[in-house]
Specification:
By secondary structure, the protein is mainly beta. The protein is 2% helix and 46% strand. It has one helix and 23 strands. The strands form six sheets. Strands 12-11-14-15-16-10-13 form a seven-stranded mixed β-sheet, with no helix packed on it. The protein has a five-stranded antiparallel β-sheet with strand order 2-8-4-5-6. It has a four-stranded antiparallel β-sheet with strand order 20-19-22-23, with no helix packed on it. The relative contact order is 0.12.
Length: 302
């Protein structure tokens, strides 16, 4: 029999295959504790995930005879606890989706993490999230439990003879099923903390900001009064937090003055514009944020 204490497992940075060397099961959190600072995530053959930085543990216990995938932020050596050590069972329960089918597993996969803080509007507990490929096939699904989400996205098996998963660099699309009203809605990802919205086998991605299609608002700009003599209130709405510049331009497109320049949260905002030093005439106010812009005409009178 293999002595786990005498057989440390050298793990490279990034992606590794990992065998379980102990004779009996043990909680994945206990097994990984000595090297947890270098562990990005561990995944079993079912696609269940242990992701310590997201506080996600779907695996619970590691078992003899099973293999695992492990993604490391830095190289480390894993030494399993001695066979003589006994551990209590983790009793982790993972709810199975009822609306979205569980996708067919394949050898290639990717993991998506959705922090709870990423949601513009947090789903209800029991709602279901699904990921689709370009042909509308489900390649990942999960039940929202009120905490951070981790989902395995399955890649295409080249031996299958038909498309049964994501192709390399294929775009991901997401849906949410509202359990309480039995309705489906598109999910919009505004940005990624890790990843680019494309499938890359044996990697992971973390959502930055995510919302539902019904919650998305367009960037808008207005002011009142208009026309105005000395002062006006400039109101604007942002669909997401970002750096904002609001400026006044003349009819030739020349920037005359910056009204506001800073970082604003998503939602409706307002700033005051003092135009006492601007000559009467027709002008434009332009809002720029996150590579988008909106322009409105204004008139200054004296």
């Amino acid at each position: 029999a293999v002595d786990p204490l005498a057989n440390g497992v050298a793990l490279n940075q990034y992606f590794n295959h990992l065998g379980y060397l102990r004779k009996t099961s043990a909680p994945v959190a206990d097994v990984m504790a000595p090297i947890v600072s270098s562990v990005v995530l561990v995944k079993d053959y079912l696609g269940l995930v242990y992701w310590p930085s997201l506080n996600v543990n779907q695996i619970g216990d590691m078992h003899p005879g099973l293999g695992y995938k492990i993604n490391m932020s830095a190289a480390a050596t894993l030494t399993y606890p001695a066979n003589a050590m006994n551990f209590a069972k983790s009793n982790v329960y993972n709810e199975t989706p009822v609306y979205y089918e569980v996708p067919q597993r394949s050898g290639a996969d990717m993991t998506i993490g959705i922090p709870l803080s990423s949601w513009n509007v947090v789903p209800e507990i029991g709602d279901e999230i699904a990921v689709f490929d370009a042909q509308g096939n489900i390649v990942g699904s999960s039940v929202f439990t009120g905490s951070n989400v981790a989902m395995s996205i399955w890649g295409a098996d080249q031996q299958a003879g038909y498309k049964n998963g994501m192709s390399n660099k294929e775009s991901l699309t997401l849906q949410l099923w509202h359990r309480s009203i039995n309705d489906v809605e598109e999910v919009v990802i505004n940005n990624w903390l890790e990843g680019d919205g494309l499938f890359h086998a044996n990697t992971y991605a973390i959502v930055g900001k995510i919302g539902l299609e019904s919650d998305m608002v367009e960037m808008s700009l207005s002011n009142y009064p208009n026309p105005f003599a000395d002062n006006t209130t400039v109101e604007f709405t942002l669909p997401e937090e970002g750096d904002v510049q609001i400026a006044l331009f003349n009819v030739l497109g020349e920037k005359l003055t910056i009204i506001s320049n800073g970082t604003y949260p998503a939602g409706k905002q307002s700033v005051q514009f003092d135009a006492k030093a601007i000559a009467p005439g027709n002008y434009f106010i332009k809002l720029e944020s996150n590579s988008k812009n909106v322009t409105i005409p204004v008139q200054i009178i004296k």
